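hiii so um. not sure if this is the right channel but i have a protein structure encoded as tokens and i wanna go backwards to a sequence. like what aa goes where. can anyone help
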């Protein structure tokens, strides 16, 4: 099984205040995110919702260090992100964050095993490490956690959509990250496969993993424990989920 995250610290994992992002094209300003302030504790499962153009993807990109804010402050695990250079942020993205994308972002001609191994290659090439028993065990554990041990040697191009997303989840888990970001993880899946992915994310949440998920579907967002709502680039709502949906129960009803 994958390692449980270390949630012994009592300090929040994420604290952002008046976070914003503006893009400039000549004299034209585009306010992708106007203002977002929130605190996210370790082990929370948070959905970010909003209509197209609301800033939800930009917000996730800022929280995951894929974009740099143009205003506001952001502390991750007690560290002020504005003090970090590009190489430090790249290392954080690789070692402390796991990503799950709507389009899976797998290398289709590589095997399932090789795709899950990709985040570990940073150490291989930057530190000259060999493929250790520990790293191989991480891959085995990650595949086991999503029920794909029997597909380890399959080429990614031959998998179903649901299986591809489960490989993406295993890849996100292999470095035992502090947080998992999921960008529309069920967007390319049918309802059955989507529920399978949500069941895995809920099980990971129950084990203590911190998950932040962007979705435009309210029914998907209801699988989290908290929903943050964005509108016109402003964080407007932040509420706990009442009458939470559980994917396992929904699958049994089908």
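sure thing!! here u go:
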């Amino acid at each position: 099984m994958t390692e449980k995250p270390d949630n012994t610290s009592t300090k929040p994992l994420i604290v952002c205040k008046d976070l914003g992002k503006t893009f400039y094209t000549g004299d034209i300003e585009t306010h992708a995110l106007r203002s977002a302030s929130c605190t996210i504790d370790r082990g929370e499962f948070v959905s970010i919702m909003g209509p197209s153009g609301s800033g939800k993807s930009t917000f996730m990109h800022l929280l995951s260090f894929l974009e740099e804010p143009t205003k506001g402050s952001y502390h991750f695990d007690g560290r002020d992100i504005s003090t970090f250079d590009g190489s430090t942020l790249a290392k954080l993205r690789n070692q402390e964050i796991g990503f799950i994308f709507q389009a899976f972002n797998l290398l289709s001609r590589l095997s399932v095993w090789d795709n899950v191994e990709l985040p570990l290659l940073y150490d291989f090439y930057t530190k000259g490490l060999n493929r250790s028993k520990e790293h191989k065990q991480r891959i085995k554990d990650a595949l086991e956690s999503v029920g794909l041990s029997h597909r380890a040697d399959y080429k990614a191009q031959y998998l179903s959509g649901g299986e591809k997303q489960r490989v993406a989840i295993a890849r996100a888990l292999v470095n035992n990250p502090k947080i998992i970001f999921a960008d529309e993880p069920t967007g390319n899946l049918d309802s059955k496969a989507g529920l399978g992915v949500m069941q895995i994310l809920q099980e990971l949440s129950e084990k203590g993993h911190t998950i932040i998920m962007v979705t435009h579907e309210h029914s998907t967002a209801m699988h989290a424990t908290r929903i943050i709502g964005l509108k016109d680039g402003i964080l407007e709502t932040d509420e706990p989920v009442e009458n939470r949906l559980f994917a396992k129960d929904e699958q049994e009803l089908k």
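oh and Residues 41-66+85-253 form a domain with the Rossmann fold fold (CATH 3.40.50.300).
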